[in-house]
Amino acid sequence: MHDNQPRTSTPDALPEVITRYLKAHRAHDTATAITAFTSEATVIDDGNTYEGTEAIGEWLDRSATEFNYTIHLTGAQRTDPTRYIATHHLEGNFPGGAIDLRYQFTLRDGLIERLVIAP
């Protein structure tokens, strides 16, 4: 298999920086979660774009308090050497009550440069 071919992985095969971010995000630990991002990182979630660690920190704080929900990692895939997808199932008191989301990570220099969260 060529290195540029998508590979399905077990969730424990995700890079440490991604698992650190996901664990901190689930624990509502913004201080730890933000250390996973480059200083000029971009997050796109729910149609909104957050650029830089200050904006990403505000987004993390807001998302931690806006709704109550459970989140379970259901799958992982490496799409190329710097891109990974972590699929999550969320259930909670947000509109619709349940959703599967794809967290699409792009890494640079061992940190998250871009995160796109979409169904």
Explain what you see:
This protein has 119 residues and is an alpha+beta fold. The chain has a single domain (11-118), classed as Nuclear Transport Factor 2, Chain: A. The protein has three helices and seven strands. The chain has helices at residues 16-26, 30-34, 52-66, and strands at residues 7-9, 37-45, 48-51, 69-80, 83-92, 98-108, 111-118. Strands 1-4-5-6-7-2-3 form a seven-stranded mixed sheet, with helices on one face. A hairpin with a 2-residue loop joins β4 (69-80) and β5. The radius of gyration is 14 Å and the shape is globular. The protein starts with 6 loop residues before the first strand and ends with a strand. Mean pLDDT is 90; it is low at 1-5.
In short:
The protein has helices spanning 16-26, 30-34, 52-66, and strands spanning 7-9, 37-45, 48-51, 69-80, 83-92, 98-108, 111-118.
Task: List its traits.
119 residues, alpha+beta, Nuclear Transport Factor 2, Chain: A, 3 helices, SnoaL-like, Nuclear transport factor 2 family protein
